[in-house]
Each structure stands twice: as C-alpha cells, then as structure tokens.
C-alpha cells in the first residue's frame, strides 16, 4: 500500500487551526471585509469554519472566488422567504429513532454528529436539532437495535454533520457493531472531509475501514474543480486501491458552478481523480440560502448542454430531494439523446 498524506501534524491539529474569524480569513486572502457583504450576524447564527488546506485553494485578491463564496457568511443569509424553511427535505418527520433517519426502502441514515470540518453556507441541515437527534454514545445502542430489527435494511448511510470528524475510537466501535448485523451489506459514508481536510484520511482510518466485511462506498461532496488538488487526489487514490466505490454529489449553486464550462471541468477533474460523478442536486431550500438558488429550468438547460459535450458516464444525474417522497426525484430533462 502506498503512503498516505505525510503531514507533521495530526488531523485534529489541522482542524483546530481552521479559520473561524471573518477578518482573519479575509486578511489571509488579501481581502478587506469592508469591501465584502460579510455579516457578523450571519456568522453568529451559523459559524465560520474553513480548514487552512482548503483556504489555500481559494484565489487571493478575488472576492468572487467560487470556493470563497461557499464559506463566507454574508448579509443575504439574513433574508427570509416563505419557500425556504428550517427543514426543507423533511428529515424531522423521517426520524425513526434518535439518530436514525429512515426515508427510503432498504436504506437508513445515521446522524453520527452535528460537526463538520467546514461550514458550507448552503448546508441544508444547518438548523437541524443535532443536540437532541445526533447519535451520541448513549443513543447508539438503541439505534443499532432499530437496525437489527429491520431486516429489509441492507445499507447504512453515515452522515451528519460529517461522520469522518468522529475520532477513530468512535468509528471503530460503530463499525464493529454494524459488522454484527448480518443483513447490512453496505456502509455508505457521506463526507466532505476528504475534499476539505484530506489530512484526516490516515493509514489508521483506512485500516479501520478495512476491518469490516461490508462493502464501503464513499460519497464525496465536491462542487467546483478548484476544490481538487494533489492532496485530494492522494486520498482518492487510496480509496480506489482499497477497493472502495468512490462517488461524488454536487449542489448546483448560483455564481459558483452554474455554467456548462465549470460543470464540464468538474466532471473531468473528478474522473481524473478516480471519482465518479453521481448526483447534481438542486438546492435544498433551507432558510437564508436564496442567493444560491438556480432555477430548475436553468438547471435542465445546463445539464442538457452538458450531455452534448461529455460522454454519458461523466454526466451526473440532476436530482431534487423532496420531503415525503420515497426516493430522490430525478429531474426530467426532456431529452431523447441516447447514452454513448
């Protein structure tokens, strides 16, 4: 097995040094906060957190950098709209037990933590009641009992927050418990950490994941090609060498990736890093994210054009999650182009 990222600090130290102050981040990027629509009030409602590895990929002196726009608290977040709510995808009504969301046939999602390595401003769970509903140590046994009693569940999805922000000890105990539930065949890990904090993917973590007898699926969250650098490629190479399935889901975001050129480059860059483009999500309309929204008609036009410029396997499915639906809604592109 080839060597993972060789860093002089452990990943917790890297995380502890993340930017958490607007002024400090702006100074690092050679920007003046007075020239930006930054909002301390928005930051108080949903804190700023940007790992320095990720910040190094943000172009300096550029207030419109697409990576910066994903993480900077701005005044637009304070606007209200009746079409934007605190629970846009119906997570609360789908809670089957503390820490478990059971929406879809055959799959259950574990809310492992409320923490992330980076706080994306469009996060659809930024108002989720994590204090009551994440999978604390004392709640894990009841959640596992629920899974044991549901033989139709063949796949467990680890989510949050970001499940990979849990330490190795917590993950070891969770994976050991899941290994005992024989009808679970796959563990799917939804994580942005390999993109924003690749230092977390240590040899110890890989060893831990390899101890399970379940199929491992890593679903990454990358929205722009500039988010992928050599540190990310080193991580995804390890995933592939260990025979994990590696997929990516993106969110279509206004002024960030809502162009054919950017989406084409994103798919090409993902595939070069051995990541399969999987889903392109319409925005989940959580309160304060109106400025990120791309209209469905524009999204359809973008993806139809993308289908004319890329082979079919590089075009992600355009989807929308809707509360109460038995699966994600695949958006009808109204196109007859054949897969090539």
How would you sum up this structure, described in words?
- The protein is of the alpha/beta class and 340 residues long.
- The protein has one domain: TIM Barrel (Alpha-Beta Barrel).
- Helices cover 30% and strands 14% of the residues.
- The protein has 13 helices and 10 strands.
- Strands 1-2-3-4-5-6-7-8-9-10 form a 10-stranded mixed beta sheet.
- A hairpin with an 8-residue loop joins strand 9 and strand 10.
- Helix 8 runs parallel beside helix 10.
Order of helices and strands: HHHHHEEEHHEHEHHEHEHEHEE
Name the structural class.
alpha/beta
Uncertain ranges: 1-7, 335-340
The side-by-side strand order for the widest beta sheet comes to 1-2-3-4-5-6-7-8-9-10
Task: Please give the largest β-sheet.
Answer: 10 strands, mixed
Please tally the helical runs, counting DSSP H or I stretches of 4 or more residues. Answer: 13
Radius of gyration: 20 Å
What is the global morphology?
globular
Q: Can you give the helix content as a percent range?
A: 25-40%
């Amino acid at each position: 097995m080839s060597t993972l990222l060789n860093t002089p600090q452990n990943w917790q130290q890297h995380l502890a040094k993340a930017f958490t102050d607007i002024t400090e981040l702006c100074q690092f990027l050679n920007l003046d906060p007075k020239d930006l629509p930054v909002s301390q009030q928005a930051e108080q409602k949903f804190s700023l957190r940007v790992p320095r590895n990720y910040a190094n990929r943000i172009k300096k002196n550029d207030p419109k950098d697409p990576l910066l726009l994903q993480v900077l608290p701005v005044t637009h977040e304070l606007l209200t709209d009746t079409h934007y709510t605190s629970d846009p995808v119906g997570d609360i009504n789908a809670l089957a037990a503390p820490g478990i969301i059971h929406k879809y046939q055959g799959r259950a999602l574990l809310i492992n933590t409320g923490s992330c390595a980076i706080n994306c401003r469009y996060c659809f769970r930024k108002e989720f009641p994590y204090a009551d509903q994440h999978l604390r140590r004392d709640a894990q046994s009841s959640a596992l009992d629920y899974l044991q009693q549901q033989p139709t569940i063949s796949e467990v999805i680890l989510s949050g927050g970001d499940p990979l922000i849990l330490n190795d000890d917590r993950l070891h105990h969770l994976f050991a418990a899941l290994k005992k539930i024989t009808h679970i065949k796959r563990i799917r890990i939804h994580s942005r950490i390999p993109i924003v904090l690749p230092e977390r993917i240590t040899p110890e973590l890989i060893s831990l994941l390899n101890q399970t007898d379940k199929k491992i699926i890593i679903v990454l969250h990358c929205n722009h090609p500039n988010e992928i650098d050599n540190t990310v490629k080193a991580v995804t190479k390890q995933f592939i060498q260990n025979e994990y399935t590696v997929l990516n889901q993106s969110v279509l975001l206004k002024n960030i990736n809502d162009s054919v050129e950017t989406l084409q480059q994103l798919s090409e860059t993902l595939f070069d890093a051995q990541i399969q483009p999987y889903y392109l999500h319409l925005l989940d309309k959580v309160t304060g994210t109106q400025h990120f929204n791309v209209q469905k008609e524009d999204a359809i036009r973008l993806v139809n054009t993308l289908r004319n410029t890329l082979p079919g396997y590089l075009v992600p499915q355009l989807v929308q999650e809707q509360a109460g639906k038995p699966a994600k809604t695949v958006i009808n592109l109204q196109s007859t182009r054949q897969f090539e």
